[in-house]
Amino acid sequence: MSSVIPVAQVKTLRMSIYRYDPSVDDKPYMQDIDVEVPNDKDIMVLDALHLAKAIEPSLSYRRSCREGVCGSDGMNINGKNGLACITPLSEAVKRNKLTLRPMPGLPVIRDLIVDMKLFYDQLEKVQPYLITKSENPEKERVQTPEERDELDGLYECILCGCCSTSCPSFWWNPDKFLGPAALLQSWRFIADTRDEATEERLDDLEDAFSLYRCHGIMNCVTVCPKGLNPTEAISNIRNKLIARKRQ
Amino acid sequence: MKVNEIINPKDLPVMEFDSIIIGGGGAGLRASLQLAESGLNTAVISKVFPTRSHTVSAQGGITCAIQSDDPDDDWRWHMFDTVKGSDYIGDQEAIEYMCSEGPKAVFELEHMGLPFSRTEEGKIYQRPFGGQSKDYGKGGQATRTCAAADRTGHSLLHTLYQANLKAGTKFLNEWFAVDMVLNEDGAVVGVIAFEIESGEIFYIRSKSTVLATGGAGRIYASTTNALINSGDGIGMALRAGLPVQDIEMWQFHPTGIYGAGTLVTEGCRGEGGYLLNKDGERFMERYAPNSKDLAGRDVVARSMALEILEGRGCGPNKDHIQLRLDHLGPELIYQRLPGIVELSKTFAGVDPAVQPIPVVPTCHYMMGGVPTNINGQVITVKDGQDTIIEGLYAAGEVACVSVHGGNRLGGNSLLDLVVFGRSAGLHIEETMKQGVNLKKASNDDIEKALERLNRLNASTEGEQVAVLKERMQQNMQNNFGVFRREDLMEKGIKKLDDLRGEVENIFLQDKSATFNTARIEALEMQNLFEVAEATAVTANERKESRGAHARDDYPDRNDDDWLKHSIYFSATKEVSKRDVNRRPKTVQAFQPMVRSY
């Protein structure tokens, strides 16, 4: 964005932003930063953050692709988790105010940046990679278009963390409940006709916490910036677990 | 020791590896996978969590003659197209290697789990892309780009990350590499890097270092590139006294979304979309009667720019072109191009199944980079002779091996990543087996790599990054864009001269050691500046038009003087020439021809 915008075309937006640098601050605080945003066109929350950072260079947040595919800039935008880069101000701003906080439920490293370690650890527990036992063919493993369609709505996950950090079950048991993002990935591999480890994958989910702590609150579905449905994935796994018991 | 202290080399803690890979995108992760599987002590240093790397944004596919769509397809035809696409300054030995090794690399990705779209027979789906032909240009349009809907880069990057998890690769995620450490023999023996979260800084000593830092599209004001694409590897190489090759060659992608700059895949045109001017004319029929909208990207981008310059652009300001897809029908669009539907709605406010997408040529890809051989070994030029730099490799967009020459074909970047990431890994494995004995770096050697950090920490006044970045980006956009001209470029070079001092003495106000993004942005800005200056000087020196480098004052290709790579060193700011490799091993070399589509 150009920093020079004719005065008549801008309006002031008050951003209220969570600030905390443990090497400087005793405790977190909310800082108001007023930015001049265009009147005649919509910009994204991330663009507004860039304007705020030009005023307050110490403001820290993650960002990379700025188009909603890398999953860096998940944050809590006026109370709802989302990606700053694809959330327009017209959607986010309430009563001319924009409140930005880090995603809830994970330790804050600084400002809007959370420590994602727990989130990634849970992901790794589901063995998020294709497991095959048969010999690789010379060319591709054959998969029909219909079989491949089963992966739609699963493989698109960008690991932004918006879902797991809006899930009360994950807040209570972030070390034991795998959370919606990890479970979506678990189903992504169970649903893949090329994967040959379904039984082991299901075995790993048989305890009381890993999967069964999902209570169908569906915050994950509400916030997913990619429109994915982790709750459905979880219930698909649950059905498999139950069907297996009945056999 | 923290990154915000004035650092003395003798106090610096040391970490030690057989091999380090700087960058966690496609090239870095393919190299690291090779090394992790070989059992070497390896680490990936990535400034972002790996799946946030820019490979994730690649859309349309990975071009490779896997004979899925056409059982008679031939990697030699792909090679012919790539040599022609490069406007004949791609190295033919490297292109031969990439195109012939490609199928193996693509099937490996499938075996790792990449969720490719499928044909009715269950094979990997392929779509037509620009610049593709059958039978050495004589058999019409080929269908050669392997795709996972329009999210191929996302699928590829996540798959490679998953495979690395499985292989047990060690990751230093959210670590920033500042500069390489060279010993007294000029060999690379590691890097200075710090953990962004804690600010803990280390000398990471390594017997081999792979630069896989990607591109630098953020030198331009309008780019499809991620905000992290700051040419860190190019900056490191130039500061270490190493050259860059063909750095003037920047690809402007025909279809960046007007205003936002986000990419719309060439796959849109591959699936049957086309471009329209304000009169509703399919103008590409005039510029490229055979290939039309699927001509080389440089050709399409220039044609669009000309339409706009001549007053036939769309919209109230006649400043963009329309990409029409609605005739393909919603079913195909939603199935094959779902990501484009999302991006168009978000960034242009249009549903491409109903309305055309407003697009403009937008900076997309750096064809040039650090020169390497096909094993990924970095090359410098001494007294006109190629010389290998011990301990240093490069792969992917940061490297110039060179398979793209003056213009990259769509779908060839993902193939480049996996083929040359793999070959670098294989060569390191082999070299380590034979044993490596490099002299240790002295404290003076290490101090050189700390200089930038120490200067930032000592800064008490100077300009802010955001101001400098905007001045640089506007300058590059205005003076080194799709069309270039000596007087404008000289003006642009003068502006960069004026900027250099300010960039070297950026004021870092926030000295915190904890996840300090201001420090990262300052270090990135210095890297971007090195790329911008190299681009500017070299573009002015190449006095011809070739590939993406189009000059109003030298409108023709000049094979007598410039069928050559350009080589640039930042210390002297001098440009020299290096021979193009035209000695493929298994086929006859393709001779330069008039390049028409």
Keywords:
heterodimer, A: 247 residues, alpha+beta, five-stranded mixed β-sheet, two-stranded antiparallel sheet, 9 helices, 15% strand, B: 597 residues, alpha/beta, eight-stranded mixed β-sheet, four-stranded antiparallel β-sheet, 16 helices, 22 strands, 35% helix
Descriptive notes:
The complex is a heterodimer of chains A (247) and B (597). Chain A is an alpha+beta fold. Chain A is built from nine helices and seven strands. Chain A has helices at 45-55, 89-92, 117-125, 145-149, 168-172, 180-190, 198-203, 219-223, 230-246, and strands spanning 10-19, 29-38, 74-77, 80-83, 97-101, 108-110, 113-114. In chain A, the strands form two sheets. Chain A has a five-stranded mixed beta sheet with strand order 2-1-5-3-4, with helices on one face. A two-stranded antiparallel ribbon of chain A has the order 6-7. In chain A, α3 runs parallel beside α6 and α6 crosses α9 (230-246). Chain A is elongated. Chain A starts with 9 loop residues before the first strand and ends with a helix. By secondary structure, chain B is α/β, with parallel strands linked by helices. In chain B, 35% of the residues lie in helices and 19% in strands. Chain B has helices at residues 26-38, 75-85, 92-112, 152-167, 232-239, 267-270, 284-287, 297-309, 330-336, 338-348, 412-434, 443-458, 465-479, 486-504, 517-541, 559-562, and strands at 14-22, 42-46, 62-63, 126-127, 145-146, 170-173, 175-182, 188-195, 201-211, 244-245, 250-257, 274-276, 321-324, 357-366, 370-371, 377-382, 385-394, 399-400, 483-484, 550-551, 564-569, 574-579. In chain B, the strands form six sheets. In chain B, strands 1, 2, 6, 7, 8, 9, 16 and 17 form an eight-stranded mixed beta sheet that branches. The radius of gyration of chain B is 23 Å and the shape is globular. The mean pLDDT of chain B is 97. At the A-B interface, α4 of A face α3, α4, α10 and α13 of B.
